[in-house]
Amino acid sequence: MPITFDRTICRDLDETIRREWLVSNGLGGYAAGTVAGVLTRMQHGLLVASPRSTASPQLLLAKIDEEVVFDQRTYYLGTNEYRDGVFNPGGFVHLESFHLEEGFPVFTYRFGGADGIMLEKRIWMPSGQDTTYIQYRVLRTAQTEQGYLYKEHASGSGVRVLQQSAPDLNDTTRTLSLTLLPLVASRPYDQPQYGNNDQHFQVQIHPVSGNGRDRLRVLRENEPRELLTLPEGVTGCTLRARQDSAPFALFAAGQPGNRAAFIPTGVWYWHFLRRQDQAAGRPAIDDLYLPGVIRATLWPDEEAALTVIVTAEDVHSQSFTPGQINLSYQRSVEQQHNQLYPQR
Length: 344
What we know:
Layout lengths: L3 E2 L1 H4 L2 H4 L3 E5 L5 E5 L10 E5 L8 E13 L2 E4 L2 E3 L5 E4 L4 E7 L2 E8 L5 E8 L6 E9 L2 H4 L4 E5 L5 E5 L11 E13 L13 E4 L6 H9 L13 E7 L7 E6 L7 E13 L1 H5 L5 E14 L7 E6 L10 H19 L4
Antiparallel strand pairs: 1-9, 2-3, 3-4, 4-5, 5-6, 5-15, 7-8, 9-10, 10-11, 11-12, 12-21, 13-14, 15-20, 16-17, 17-18, 18-21, 19-20
């Protein structure tokens, strides 16, 4: 029986904070969290990798908090609980629905009331890779179908047909601005991280190029192996907690119209509470690091999706085109289905 929660459950914090989801890569790595978005256990995170060089799985990306600007209003989608018991922000109140698609979590948020828009977030992990995908796309509603992305015109035969029109990215009533706050760590999956204002993650931003000649130029200049030239529409960086730490990478892949950009910040967020650990008498306070924010523009078009890729794999093995990302999801769904229903 499919697991689906509607808004009556999704907007009830008592219900969603105790409902958890988990996906794994078959190697000991995983992503896990709650429907509400609150991290209630030290083990929760969007990428817990299991590299061979360490004795235990490592938490790399704890969570992503989202901020959406639509119709001149800002919506905060993240939900965090702090040491003093305060929740800030309380983004679960915008959660319209939650369901599992072959075991992968899918969140849907609504903005602007009945005539507003919906933002979908889905999370998956490919089998055999320490990589997590978090994809955002604006869903089409009746309002968008009536003229948001389509216009009516007369064909040569006199039949009225609908033709897709290019979105006007300067029209704020037709787009939303998305800001992502990736909160990272570098610690064993079951132990807290304590921040220090004198200690910052090392951040190497990957250059962006729109043509092959620039890529060849970068390679000729002997750029570090960890850096690669990204295609237009993609932004990202490689992160290290310390010089001797294993690197991991964070990318945001879209198309040029998304205007995706990574803006370095380098600040600590303090004193997150893990209530399940507190109830069990274990260390329950954790600090997380914000290396930068990702900003992009979205509109109702599947090709306009923005996909965050966080990986402990070789960055040169990553694919960033919409077709390749969609294929990754389709293959992951098929593998998940075969694991859940092997007899079929």
